[in-house]
Design brief:
Helices cover about 25% and strands about 30% of the residues. The protein has 12 helices and 22 strands. Strands 9, 10, 11, 12, 19, 21 and 22 form a 7-stranded mixed β-sheet that branches. The longest helix is centred in the last third of the chain and has 26 residues.
Length: about 475
């Protein structure tokens, strides 16, 4: 795929000059541009979400000249796109935030082949066609989008206001005063009885009604449409030509669930904690805390603290094993003159429950302070590395953290630094390869030595002379 085609897929800019509107050379509907970007986001659709921007003002965005195949818009690049629009554009900002969204939703349910009557995004398409300026980013880093609300709040100096159609009609917006309006849109996760197409059509109707309300009141605005997390498009039976057929033999790949990390902030992000799975066991009873920890707005971080030399992340859960249980990760930062750098160590993991404290030593969770620490398993189970060692044996508590990652020092933004992995340099596979190579090298060396040790006769019998008598051949 040519670089120009990928630029077309990554950015669709419409600029209106006077009564004539000039499209950037590719004159295609915006869903076709998103279709051209499917190859970009298909391999990493679980980590990126699309972002669509449009405004009632003109000349807010220019074409992104540095886009290429596989380009993913980072948080810094997203800020460079949003800053001019927020500084020079309207002060009223609309954020349509859907539960889940991926580029595949547009290609599967949009009118990308001219079937406008079948499109689930007719109002959104119409808004982009009529907008004096717009920008389509097919693949934006998910972490950048997860902080979009906070970023807009800081830039506008206004708290987000959750509105619906009824609330919007009662609002009196002022063009001189900043306003951040947040409109939540569901997906299949919240509408399990409806097909994805119907849910997306309903969301598109909400977008159309909100824009119609603002247009009737002649209010200038800048709008953004994106999602909290990526989605995986589920095929409709009607989309399969000729019925199900061989589709019954196909198995949809199960996309891994990606959770945002737990972040403790005071004046800035201080501690980041993430795991693919967080489960605990007490007295033989198992409990999965993954969904109660990551991405949960109700997570209680009371008791967490941070200094340059000591940090603690406190996670409190109510109703866990019929009690209030607190997990405390205690990390220390020390300077070692021998290595001329600072190293952090997770001193211990404490479990506070019913007035008692259970402590696990975790001294093997360590690394340079400028890095984060990652390990496939951090567990008190012997079969999973036993990085958590209880101070008192036996312990009623057992903890397992899968794909564990933590950073408590030198945190920048909401992303982890380079990870120091717990895996040793010499894995079993490397040892097997080294031993096999050494054994083969020994055989080769021994054989070569034997070949070089062979000696030939340097004297031969001459039938015309006396007979040569050889007593020993070396």
């Amino acid at each position: 795929m040519e670089a120009e085609a990928m630029m077309a897929g990554a950015v669709a800019v419409r600029v209106r000059s006077g009564t004539q509107r000039a499209l950037v050379p590719w004159r295609m509907p915006w869903p076709l541009l998103l279709l051209a970007a499917v190859a970009v986001a298909a391999a990493a659709s679980e980590q990126q979400v699309p972002l669509v921007l449009w405004s009632s003002d003109r000349d807010l965005w220019a074409p992104a000249a540095d886009t290429h195949e596989g380009h993913i818009t980072s948080d810094m690049q997203l800020s460079s796109y949003l800053d001019p629009a927020l500084e020079m554009g309207p002060r009223n900002v609309l954020l349509f935030l859907q539960d889940k969204l991926s580029v595949e939703d547009f290609t599967a349910y949009g009118g990308v082949f001219g079937n406008k009557q079948d499109s689930a995004f007719s109002n959104l398409e119409n808004a982009l066609d009529l907008a004096p300026s717009s920008l389509v980013l097919p693949a934006v880093d998910w972490y950048a989008v997860s902080t979009l609300t906070t970023y807009l709040q800081e830039k506008l100096g206004a708290s987000p206001l959750h509105v619906d159609l009824a609330t919007l009609r009662e609002l009196k917006l002022n063009a001189s005063l900043p306003a951040l309006l947040l409109i939540r849109l569901p997906y299949t996760a919240s509408s399990g009885l409806m097909a994805p197409r119907e849910v997306l059509k309903g969301n598109d109707e909400v977008i159309g009604q909100v824009l119609s309300t603002l247009k009737s009141e002649d209010i200038s605005y800048t709008a953004a449409f994106t999602a909290v997390r990526p989605s995986r498009v589920t095929r409709d039976v009607a989309m399969v030509a000729g019925g199900l057929g061989r589709q019954l033999l196909q198995k949809q790949a199960v996309s891994p669930v990606i959770h945002p990390p737990v972040s403790y902030n005071d004046t800035a992000p201080r501690i980041l904690f993430w795991a693919q799975n967080f489960s605990v066991e007490y007295g033989g009873h198992h409990q999965d805390l993954t969904h109660r920890t990551f991405g949960s707005q109700e997570l209680n971080l009371t008791g967490s603290f941070w200094t340059n030399s000591l940090a603690g992340l406190s996670l409190t859960y109510n109703g866990l094993f019929d009690a209030t249980v607190t997990f405390k990760f205690i990390l220390a930062n020390r300077s070692y003159p021998v290595s001329a750098r600072d190293w952090f160590t997770m001193e211990r993991l404490e479990i506070h429950s019913n007035g008692s404290i259970t402590t696990f030593n975790a001294s093997q969770v360590t690394g340079p302070s400028i890095y984060s620490f990652r390990c496939e398993y951090v567990s008190s189970n012997n079969r999973m590395g036993n990085l958590l060692v209880p101070r008192t044996e036996p312990s009623l508590w057992h903890i397992t953290l899968k794909d564990f990652q933590i950073q408590a020092f030198n945190v920048t933004g909401e992303q982890f630094s380079y990870a120091s992995d717990c895996a040793g340099f010499f894995s079993p596979g490397i040892w097997m390869g080294l031993l096999t190579t050494l054994f083969m090298l020994f055989i080769f060396t021994y054989g070569l030595h034997m070949i070089l040790s062979l000696k030939t006769m340097d004297r031969f019998d001459d039938h015309k002379g006396p007979t040569i008598s050889l007593t020993q051949i070396v």
